[in-house]
Amino acid sequence: MPRGGLQIVQPASAAERWVRAYGSEFHAEDSASWRAIIENRTISDDEGGSVDAARSRYHREFLADAKLRHGVVAPVKAPLLPGFDGALHLYRTAEQGKFTEAEIKIVTETAQQISVSAKESRAQRVHGDCAEQPAWVPRVTSRLIIYNAALQPVFADGLKDLEERIAEQLVDDARRRLQHLDGHPVYSDRVALADSSGQLWVFRAVAYRSYPALGDGAMVFYCLMPTFCEWISLRASDVSADSELSRLVPAIQYMHEHFRRGPTLGEISRHVHLSPFHFHRRFTELLGITPKHFLLECQIFQAKRLLYGRQAELAEIAKTCGFAHQSHFTSRFKQFVGLTPTRWRKLALRGEESARGHGISV
């Protein structure tokens, strides 16, 4: 966090403490970040007290811990993963005074530079398996959808890339979650919804009984889960402010390298020097996916590559990807994707032919 001008000098240990405090409760009070992201513009404390210390616990308690008072918040496009936007915060003490218009412009330009740098960095670190984005990977610009207690979208950018059938199912699911919130401040799990072809789209759903940063009443968040290529592009340095999360990232790389032989939970956890119980709990909490499910995702991605290539039979694909036998492969593939391998291949190839017929590069 800034303690003078635009300089960030907070020690790493203090930054980690702030990250944990923010993630555990204060994000629900951070209206400035949400305004910056939703409105796609820089927010300063000159705008009706949007960064006013008297308005929320976020400012009264979280920022007060560092004696910070004046702030400016700028939107950042996909700083970590595509489709998940963030915000750059800078703050000053009351004695240091408000940011000037010239300084706010610098913050805005810096956030834009971070957005460009993040995109370039991801492009440079693409793994061989994802050297070119596979044609079957969904093209979406935003992964987040938020509904309020009246089932109206508060943030709907993620809806524009989804079928109407999926959107209708999201509303129905949100209605059920809101009905089950009684007595539960937060209700979180994964939900898989089928599109018109029967293929599954997997979301992480989190319902909050209260989320003041976005308004009064309950809110339900849906995040379309990152793809395999996005998971393996992560680096520990991307999340260095959170030592627990950065410690888990090497496990993603390890599972990707060894998924064919089915590494055990104990083996994976030893690789990152954690107990199996602690590793499984934190991996699932922080990434929204269990280690076992990620190993299956590795298998399914490789299977899709081979299916799409049309050069291997199902039995050979099953063996190559680490499944016990062909029927096991078919069963797990359908459970994960929503379609049998044969059906999925036909739809994927049909989609390629259709795209080529319209002059679209795949």
Structural write-up:
By secondary structure, the protein is α+β, with helices and mostly antiparallel strands. Strand 6 and strand 7 form a beta hairpin. Strands 7-6-10-9-8 form a 5-stranded antiparallel β-sheet, covered by helices on one side. It has a 3-stranded antiparallel β-sheet with strand order 3-4-5, sandwiched between helices. It starts with a strand and ends in a 5-residue tail after the last helix. It is built from 13 helices and 10 strands. The protein folds into 4 domains: 2-124, 2-Layer Sandwich (Beta-Lactamase), CATH 3.30.450; 144-225, Beta-Lactamase; 229-289, no CATH class; 294-357, Arc Repressor Mutant, subunit A (Orthogonal Bundle).
Brief descriptors of the model:
362 residues; alpha+beta; Beta-Lactamase; 13 helices; 10 strands; 15% strand; disordered N terminus
Which spans have pLDDT < 50 for at least 5 consecutive residues? 1-12, 48-53, 355-362
Shape type: globular
Radius of gyration: 22 Å
Mean pLDDT score, rounded?
A: 85
Q: What is the count of DSSP helices, taking H or I runs of 4+ residues?
A: 13
Q: What is the number of domains?
A: 4
SSE sequence, one letter per element: EEHHEHEEHEEHEEEHHHHHHHH
Level-1 CATH class name of the largest domain:
Alpha Beta
N-end to C-end Cα span = 43 Å
Short characterization:
By secondary structure, the chain is of the alpha+beta class. Helix content is 45%, strand content 15%. The chain has 13 helices and 10 strands.
